[in-house]
Design goal:
Length: about 220
């Protein structure tokens, strides 16, 4: 550290001086910034990337490209051709597409007409979700009801009273007693990653039936 930098600032730098790696999804490159930065400009393509949390509490079509969290409140509706965030919490409505670097949590019910990709997805017990597009994730945990086709490159976990209706491709599946998969199941080649402790084979009998015909416009779940 340079001698001319005051000691207090040096101390603050040491405390928060870890860099973070930022992925620019516009050009695909990575760059490093200080962990205390609130935004960044991609050195490869000049794209502006925010690190702030974004909260939507009305109808909005704003551009969402942040490495912070996205919260769509109960009265919020986001239409975004390609929303990007770290974690997303959906209490309201969404259409377009959403990419979460980490977790996507649904906290509402209804039709979600959006292309969804996340590292992990959580469907809480009271949520009843239908999505007309295939959902892509590494892991998904279903405590409520989900009607969608799923492409999971890790493990799908269906907990007690959880129901998944649709075709599923995954590398591992856990179904608790009382959980249910209604639809086609395909176990993709390759083992689940060892870092995923929940990646096990099915632990309860599956009720696997023919893929149901389902109407994407059906709103009554
Ligand atoms: Zn870029």
């Amino acid at each position: 550290m340079h001698d001319r930098i005051p000691h207090k600032i040096q101390l603050a730098y040491k405390q928060t001086g870890d860099n973070r790696t930022v992925h620019c999804y516009k050009c695909g490159s990575f760059h490093e910034v200080s962990s205390c930065a609130s935004s960044s400009i991609c050195p490869a393509c000049g794209c502006h990337i925010d690190f702030k949390d974004i909260r939507i509490n009305n109808r909005s079509s704003c551009l969402v490209d942040t490495r912070g969290d996205l919260l769509i409140e109960k009265n919020g509706y986001l239409f975004c051709a390609k929303a990007i965030c770290k974690n997303a919490y959906l209490y309201g409505s969404l259409s377009g597409s959403l990419f979460c670097e980490q977790n996507l949590t649904f906290a509402s019910s209804g039709l979600v007409a959006a292309k969804l990709t996340a590292h992990s997805i959580e469907i809480p017990p009271d949520s009843r979700i239908a999505c007309p597009f295939p959902i892509h994730a590494h892991n998904i945990s279903v405590h409520g009801f989900l009607r969608a086709n799923l492409v999971i490159d890790g493990t799908i976990n269906i907990f007690k009273k959880g129901i998944v209706e649709g075709s599923v491709t995954a590398r591992g599946i856990n179904v608790d007693p009382g959980g249910e998969l209604i639809g086609q199941l395909e176990i993709a080649p390759g083992k689940p990653k060892k870092t995923d402790p929940s990646a096990e084979v099915a632990t309860a009998p599956l009720r696997v039936t023919r893929r149901p015909r389902w109407d994407a416009t059906k709103r009554v779940l």
